[in-house]
Design goal:
Number of strands: 13
Shape: globular
CATH class of the largest domain: Alpha Beta
CATH architecture of the largest domain: 2-Layer Sandwich
CATH topology of the largest domain: HIT family, subunit A
Strand content: 15-25%
CATH superfamily of the largest domain: HIT-like
Number of domains: 2
Order of helices and strands: HHEHHEEHHHEEHEEHHEEEHEEHEH
Largest sheet: 9 strands, antiparallel
Distance between the termini: 24 Å
Radius of gyration: 22 Å
Low-confidence stretches: none
């Protein structure tokens, strides 16, 4: 099998077995178009320098992939998708991070508030109460290491164990608060206001956060319509294309409708050691092999206690996405991503190839 490209998705899907193709088409809508332009001769040298030839830009194939159920959609331009994945670290980033120390998280016992139940301390992390809360129960898990990219498997597993304890303590404070969320913003491009390694935890009540509830409703509607699990079928559709694998009993996919660059999704039944190990190895592939330095990572979980909604088809899900060079002032999200569909440069097939290679190497 030769190297695949996302812009060839229609041909790739057409080559699947009929049952596989039906499964894919039940989940995804694909369309393509060709954009044409006529550049002035004055631009030819510049175009050749950056795109290889003038002919490369005069006709450009664009593929639009939309998840029929969640309506997540991504646009891939062959000019972008066929380029090698970015393999360059910002030259001055290490110095820039070093200059941010010390910050309030370097001495959290002195410079951060604690929750009403106190602090939870792990070997590599400690909690604080978020001083500007966006929910009633909203905390921070702070890594003891300042450098936000210096996390290890041990420190990640420790931080998630501390987060699990924080959820239990918070639930004891307010038994109606049952819907947990973990969100990890790394460096400025991701929305992190403090560079020091940390992630945030919150526990809400009444119903889950809107994005999580939206996907839960998708799983219920999908089961009612097709009699099968949405996430099982989503994984199989990716696996049939070479974009999904089971690793340590946990499912990993290079998302075919990524919200932005290099998005990977980890799916398991519990937030246990195999899940956390796989989450770490996936994130480590992004940071060590695909040179991601600023990222968003979120973990969605079912409620901690019985809820009125049906969560029977909802697994534990981690999503992580590259946010680009934190020293570049250009934003990676614009009006298209916020209000229409994501314009994505990275090819999920190349992301998947890097993932599987890194898993085998590790």
């Amino acid at each position: 099998m030769g190297r695949r490209h996302v812009v060839d998705i229609e041909r790739i899907v057409a080559g699947l077995e009929p049952e596989q193709r039906a499964g894919f088409e039940r989940l995804f809508h694909v369309s393509s178009s060709v954009g044409r332009l006529e550049p002035p001769e004055h631009m030819w040298r510049w175009i050749t320098k950056y795109f290889g030839s003038v002919g490369a830009v005069t006709e450009q194939k664009v593929v639009k992939i939309t998840n029929r159920w969640t309506l997540d959609g991504s646009l891939f331009n062959e000019l972008r998708a066929r380029r090698p994945l970015e393999a360059r670290l910002p030259v001055d980033l290490a110095d820039e991070i070093a200059r941010t120390a010390p910050d309030p998280f370097c001495e959290p016992e002195l410079n951060t508030p604690e929750d009403v139940f106190g602090r939870i301390r792990g070997k590599y992390s400690v909690t604080a109460s978020n001083i500007a809360k966006y929910d009633g129960l909203h905390g921070v898990v702070i890594f003891r290491e300042h450098d936000p990219l210096a996390f290890t498997q041990a420190s990640v597993e420790d931080a998630f164990d501390v987060a699990a304890q924080w959820f239990q303590q918070s639930h004891a404070v307010d038994p109606q608060a049952i819907y947990p969320l973990i969100m990890w913003n790394c460096l400025w491009k991701s929305g992190a206001s403090i560079p020091h390694g940390h992630f945030q935890v919150s526990l809400t009540k009444g119903m889950h956060y809107g994005e999580v509830e939206r996907v839960r409703r998708v799983t219920t509607a999908y089961r009612q319509t097709h009699g099968t699990s949405y996430f099982d079928d989503l994984f199989e559709a990716h696996a049939d294309l070479g974009l999904g694998r089971e690793h340590d009993g946990v499912r990993v996919i290079a998302n075919l409708t990524p919200i932005k660059e290099k998005e990977c999704v980890v799916i398991g039944q519990r937030l246990d050691e195999p899940f956390l190990r796989t989450l770490y190895q996936t994130l480590n592939c992004l940071t060590d092999y695909l040179n991601v330095v600023s990222f968003n990572l979120v973990v969605w979980q079912p409620p901690l206690a019985p809820a009125p909604e049906d969560w029977s088809d909802f697994p534990v899900i981690a999503r992580m996405v590259d946010r680009g060079d934190p020293l570049n002032r250009t934003a990676d999200f614009g009006a298209m991503e916020l209000y229409a569909a994501s314009v994505v440069s990275s090819d999920p097939f190349r992301v998947a190839a890097a993932l599987w290679e890194s898993f085998e190497r590790d």
